[in-house]
Amino acid sequence: MSISLSNISKSYKKVKAVQDISFDVNPGELFGLIGPDGAGKTTIFRILTTLLISDEGTATVAGFDVVKDYKAIRKAVGYMPGRFSLYQDLTVEENLAFFATIFGTTIEENYDLIEDIYVQIEPFKNRRAGKLSGGMKQKLALCCALIHKPKVLFLDEPTTGVDPVSRKEFWEMLKRLQKKGITILVSTPYMDEAALCDRIALIQGGKILKIDTPEAIVSQFPKTIYNVGAVNMYKLIQSLQQYEHVYSVFPFGEFVHYTDKRDLFEISDLQSYLEKEGLTAIHIESTKANIEDAFMELAR
Amino acid sequence: MKEENVIEVNQLTKTFGDFTAVNTISFEVKKGEIFGFLGANGAGKTTAMKMLIGISKPSSGQATVAGFDVYSQPENIKKNIGYMSQKFALYDDLTVKENITFFGGIYGLSKKKIKEKREELISELGLENISNKLVGSLPLGWKQKLSFSVSLLHEPKIVFLDEPTGGVDPITRRQFWEMIYKAADQGTTIFVTTHYMDEAEYCDRVSIMVEGKIEALDTPKKLKEQFKVDSMNDVFLKLARIPSPTLPKGKGKNTDCN
Question: What does the alpha-carbon distance between residue B46 and residue B41 come to, in Å, rounded to a whole number?
Answer without folding.
Answer: 9
